[in-house]
Amino acid sequence: xxxxxxxxxxxxxxxxxxxxxxxxxxxxxxxxxxxxxxxxxxxxxxxxxxxxxxxxxxxxxxxxxxxxxxxxxxxxxxxxxxxxxxxxxxxxxxxxxxxxxxxxxxxx
Length: 108
Known about the structure:
This protein has helices at about 5-10, 15-25, 35-65, 85-90, 95.
């Protein structure tokens, strides 16, 4: 099958991530050494990643958050009584993997 009809068919089926991955793999000379199963695996992974990103973006829009905050953006110089090591440990989410509870109390 020719590349152009394949790309059109992927787009028709709503597999935009796979179409993008297909274009990238076609442009990469090193990808010619990959077997068919590896190629397919990379395309499926690209599609899954794109769908996950879209779901996250849609949820972020629905949440209507005023600010996009990340753990890396926290300013520890401001005197708020934050323990940096505890904050980073909580952010690593080890407590979830260990099936532990977390109770955060805020006193003003």
